[in-house]
Amino acid sequence: MDELIPLSNSTLGQLAIEHPRYDRKALTPGIVHVGVGNFHRAHQAWYLHRLMQAGRARDWAIVGAGVRPYDTAMREKLLAQDCLTTLIELDPEGTSAEVIGSMIDYLPVEAGNGPLIRAMANPAIRIVALTVTESGYYVDPVSKGFDANHPDIQHDAAHPDVPRTVFGAMVAAYRMRRAAGHDPFTGLSCDNLQGNGAILRQAVVSLARLSDPDLSDWIEANASFPNSMVDCIAPATGPKELALSRDFGVVDAAPVTHEAFRQWVIEDNFCTGRPDWDLVGATFSDDVHAYEKMKIRILNAGHQVLANAGEILGLETIAECMAHPLVSAMFRKVQATEIAQTVAAVPGTTPLSYVDLIERRFANPKIVDTTRRVAFDGSARHTGFVLPIVRDQLAAGRSVEGLALVEALWARMCEGTREDGSAIEPNDPFWTDLTAVARDARERPSAWLEQSRFYGELQQVQPFATAFERWLRLIWEEGCDTAMKDYLAVESDSAAGTG
């Protein structure tokens, strides 16, 4: 490209790539989305944009929002380009780009969340959607109940008009809507949590009950919190991604790269209406749980199978992990003989066919999805994605050898050094504690499983505890490669199936 065009409403007609054909000035807001990261813009915002391109959903435009100070930087970038985003699809067969325009504003990020509360209280807003990470819902990792003792929650219960959390802001907005005689909005979680709608409902209703039980009852009786399953790999944006947008002639301060795959399965339970996302590829289903279980266990737990071994070995991306013969072979065996055992088929695919799909997606060398990003917040991801599979396998009397190895690799990674001696930078909210326990576990492996907030009863359950201790000792004594070779040499005691 000879000419670089700064992204804005006024320059859309100059772009050589696909861009909004609708009048963005005629759009009106219907959705507030909290957490305007790469995934949201590559996924939910894209589906809405496709509807707008087809002449629909013009009254469902997105207003972006955040509740943390670091969201301010993204707000400034997006407002400077009229909330437009360049999406760059990285397919092994070729790279393409388009500009989407379904987001029309980004709220100020302020202490007390006043602008966010006022926006959500507006009856024109019928959906409040969230991507706030798996660990952002104040869930106790063992009991899965609401963590009412967290300092943020205690603050919001005591100061409901100036909350710190998005859930406190939602409660405040519901209070204003009820007082004004307006219907509630739908709360739509777009995070990778099984039963994410139920978890969002738990957070909002439980928090409201701490300060206003009558309001809590009103929310529970009238608001909707549909479950959903979301899927699209959208790596973090860095210099390479910024340069890619320029290759398409666009100056974009916050472009998004993504794979050539999207999936969105949603429970059709919206108390004040919704866009027709199914017309552009989303699926409305009464059985979201089956889809999300397949995705969370095979893809999200699969990420943890790869990432910890990758960090220990210094493999920088997930594609590099899949190119490593031992890591990829371990991944396949754990998936086929343990994880897929706990997953049922869904319309159009079987568990093992889905494993094949995930292998192809993870191996895409154009997707620079860093091992560090995937390994981030292992304390939430192992407890949320991996350990439920361990429990199901144990309950069925099936093998947990591979899953025990995966947990041993996590324990080894959290020690904080790679096998080449380089340091692994802190990568978990509990990193200091995890590192201290991981170093103790080098000599006494059982110390790792004694972290009851993660493992609960599993520290005493055989054969998981025995296998874990054996693998961790072997990893420390002979290295990660040897442990994976030994695991691959062991004949599985169960054939792959669908559970």
The helical percent reads 40-55%
Counting H and I runs of at least 4 residues, what is the number of helices? 21
- CA-to-CA gap between the ends? 52 Å
Class by helix and strand content?
A: alpha/beta
Principal-axis shape equals globular
- Integer average pLDDT: 95
Question: Strand count, sense and closure of the main sheet?
Answer: 5 strands, parallel
Instruction: Report Rg.
Output: 23 Å
Low-confidence stretches: 493-499
Q: CATH homologous superfamily of the largest domain, by name?
A: NAD(P)-binding Rossmann-like Domain
Task: Work out the count of structural domains.
Answer: 2
* Strand order of the biggest β-sheet: 6-3-2-7-8
Q: Give the class-level CATH name of the largest domain.
A: Alpha Beta
* Strand element count: 13
Judging by the overall fold, what is the CATH architecture of the largest domain?
3-Layer(aba) Sandwich
Reported by name, the CATH topology of the largest domain is Rossmann fold
Estimated share of beta-strand residues: 5-15%
Q: What is this entry, summarized?
A:
With 499 residues, this protein is of the alpha/beta class. The protein has two domains: 5-286, NAD(P)-binding Rossmann-like Domain (Rossmann fold), CATH 3.40.50; 289-489, N-(1-d-carboxylethyl)-l-norvaline Dehydrogenase, domain 2 (Orthogonal Bundle). It has 21 helices and 13 strands.
